[in-house]
Structure formats: structure tokens, C-alpha cells
């Protein structure tokens, strides 16, 4: 993505962002649609979506799909039908997303569905010329199906969930587990939602493991918590889409979808952002989180005493 486009997206200047996309659509020499690494493919070539059977391909990460599911409703308002070809683990959420007529599991072959035009999910806001109000959703836009999730164990005071590691893409987003130890306290119980956390990491933090590979169960776990503190990964998007309160830790050169310094994001009203001031320095970020957590606890205690 061009720097100008990223700046426009950060600022919420979508008119300018889509104009840049329009220019690129004309100027870029496109290879055949469905060749090369999926996350690099440009699928939509400007075809009209009005009154068409549209196949939406989810070729990026789980967090990207969750973030851009908000655009299925306005897409469906102009399309004849919307079929979502998405990651299998997201199907229970995708089939309930507003605007989705059908959701089928993504795989390495061809989609087993008829369609007239296809588009990658992150291209949808450009294709529909998404407005600020279609991005800046103030209410949860994903619904969880029922699931039997056991209650939290060992809870005392505030239930605080933690995620500190990421996948292979951009390891700058990760925080050392040892830094999170300072979040523990007499009025806080720490819970790890981190998949694959070692016993050593859990012991270093002082957190109880409630991680799960099931997205629906994870969503219900988020709703059991008072607060999630996490790095920039899929769980942050899931929390935001469900309207769960979360504090997101961002490295100094954070992704275009987050502001570079602001504590709030127009993508998710329930998230609060904490930024590195210096590349690689998570110590100051965690110090700010500890201070904010202390203020939060004191406010809660004052309210309870009234």
C-alpha cells in the first residue's frame, strides 16, 4: 500500500483513500486474478457489484476477516447475493454476520459455488465507496452462537485476560511475558488467552490458562472478562467486533489500521490503544498500562463504596 493511502486510512479520509485506490486500479498491471500468494492477489478489477452474485474471498488473516465483516451489510444492500469464502474457524461467526447469505469454508481448491463477480474482503470498502458511518460502528457487529463455556476459576476482583504473542508476521508486535508480571495484584486475577503459552511463561506472568483454539469459545471467554490486554493480533479484532473492552499494545511503527499516537480507533469503540514511544521499548508501554489499570481499579472501588 502507498504511504498516501495509509495516511488517508489512518485519518479516516476515506474519500481520498478510495481515490488513490481508483488511480492504482488503472495504473497497476494486473497478473491473472488467481495466481501467486493469496495475500498479494488483487481480485477486484472495478466490476460493477450492483445486482450481482458476489463471492467474497477471505485471503488475509483471521483478524482482517473479522475487521472487514462489517462491510458485508452495505455490500449486500447493492448485491443480489453475498457468499463468503472464509477461514473454516470463522464460519460460526461469518454465517451470522449481517449481509452474508452463505458462508463456505476456504480451501486450496476452487470455490464450489456459482458467482458473477469476486472480490477479496479487504477490497470491499473501496468497491462500495464505504462511508465513515459504515466504518465507525458504535455497536457490536458480530454475534456469538451459544456455547457451553465453563465459568472462570480462581477469580478474585477484576478478571484480566492477556495475549502477548503473535504469528510469524511482524514479530515487533510481541511483548515479553516477563513484562506482564507487574499487572498482577490483590484485586486482579490474570488469565492467559495465549495459544501455545508455555508453563514457564504462565508462571512468569502468574496467569491461569483459559486459552482455546475455538473462536466461539474464545468470544465467550472475552465476555467473561472485565478487560483484555493484548498485542495487535486477531483477538483484538474479535474483542472489538463483539464490543468487549480491550487495551491494545502497539509498537512504534504500527499497522495502518491504527492511529500512530491516538488512544482511540474509529474502527472499534471499545478498544483503548497504548503506543510505544521508542521502537522496541515495551517497558514504558507496560508502565502506562499499570498506571491506567490502577486508576481503573481505584475508580471501581470508589463506585462500589458509594
As residue ranges, the low-confidence spans are none
Q: Which range best describes the helical content: under 10%, 10-25%, 25-40%, 40-55%, 55-70% or over 70%?
A: 25-40%
The arrangement of helices and strands along the chain is HHEHHEHEEHHEEHEHEHEEH
User: How would you sum up the global shape?
Assistant: globular
Mean pLDDT: 93
* Secondary-structure content class: alpha/beta
Instruction: Please report which band the strand proportion falls in: under 5%, 5-15%, 15-25%, 25-35%, 35-45% or over 45%.
Output: 15-25%
Number of strands: 10
Number of helices: 11
Radius of gyration: 20 Å
- Span from first to last CA? 52 Å
Task: Going across the biggest sheet, name each strand in turn.
Answer: 7-6-5-8-9-10
The biggest beta sheet, please? 6 strands, parallel
Task: Pick out its properties.
15% strand, six-stranded parallel β-sheet, 11 helices, globular, 10 strands, 306 residues, alpha/beta, four-stranded parallel β-sheet
Task: Characterise the protein shown here.
This protein is α/β, with parallel strands linked by helices and 306 residues long. Helices cover 32% and strands 15% of the residues. The protein has 11 helices and 10 strands. α3 packs parallel to α10. The longest helix has 23 residues. The chain starts with a helix and ends with a helix. The relative contact order is 0.12. The mean pLDDT is 93.
How do the strands and helices of this protein lay out in sequence?
Blueprint lengths: L2 H9 L2 H14 L25 E5 L4 H7 L3 H5 L4 E6 L4 H4 L7 E4 L11 E4 L3 H5 L3 H4 L22 E6 L24 E5 L6 H7 L2 E2 L5 H10 L2 E5 L2 H9 L3 E5 L20 E5 L7 H23 L1
Parallel strand pairs: 1-2, 1-4, 2-3, 5-6, 5-8, 6-7, 8-9, 9-10
Amino acid at each position: 500500500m502507498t504511504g498516501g493511502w495509509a495516511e488517508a486510512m489512518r485519518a479516516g479520509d476515506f474519500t481520498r483513500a478510495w481515490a488513490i485506490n481508483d488511480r492504482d486500479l488503472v495504473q497497476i498491471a494486473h497478473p491473472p486474478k488467481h495466481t501467486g500468494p493469496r495475500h498479494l492477489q488483487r481480485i477486484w478489477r472495478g466490476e460493477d457489484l450492483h445486482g450481482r452474485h458476489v463471492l467474497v474471498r477471505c485471503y488475509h488473516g483471521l483478524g482482517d476477516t473479522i475487521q472487514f465483516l462489517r462491510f458485508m451489510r452495505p455490500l449486500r444492500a447493492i448485491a443480489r447475493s453475498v457468499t463468503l469464502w472464509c477461514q473454516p474457524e470463522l464460519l460460526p461467526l461469518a454465517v451470522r454476520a449481517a449481509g452474508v447469505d452463505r458462508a463456505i469454508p476456504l480451501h486450496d481448491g476452487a470455490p464450489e459455488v456459482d458467482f458473477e463477480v469476486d472480490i477479496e474482503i479487504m477490497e470491499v470498502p473501496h468497491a462500495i465507496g464505504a462511508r465513515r458511518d459504515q466504518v465507525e460502528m458504535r455497536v457490536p457487529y458480530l454475534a456469538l452462537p451459544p456455547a457451553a463455556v465453563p465459568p472462570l476459576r480462581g477469580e478474585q476482583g477484576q478478571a484480566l485476560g492477556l495475549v502477548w504473542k503473535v504469528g510469524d508476521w511482524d514479530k515487533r508486535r510481541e511483548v515479553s511475558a516477563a513484562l506482564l508480571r507487574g499487572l498482577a495484584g490483590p484485586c486482579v486475577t490474570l488469565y492467559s488467552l495465549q495459544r501455545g503459552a508455555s508453563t514457564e511463561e504462565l508462571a512468569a506472568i502468574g496467569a491461569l490458562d483459559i486459552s482455546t483454539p475455538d473462536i466461539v469459545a474464545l468470544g465467550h471467554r472475552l465476555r467473561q472478562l472485565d478487560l483484555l490486554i493484548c498485542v495487535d493480533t486477531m483477538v483484538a479484532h474479535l474483542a472489538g467486533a463483539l464490543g468487549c473492552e480491550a487495551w491494545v499494545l502497539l509498537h512504534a511503527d504500527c499497522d495502518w489500521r491504527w492511529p500512530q499516537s491516538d488512544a482511540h480507533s474509529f474502527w472499534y469503540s471499545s478498544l483503548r490503544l497504548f503506543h510505544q514511544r521508542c521502537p522496541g521499548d515495551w517497558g514504558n508501554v507496560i508502565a502506562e498500562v499499570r498506571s491506567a489499570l490502577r486508576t481503573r481499579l481505584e475508580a471501581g472501588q470508589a463506585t462500589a463504596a458509594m
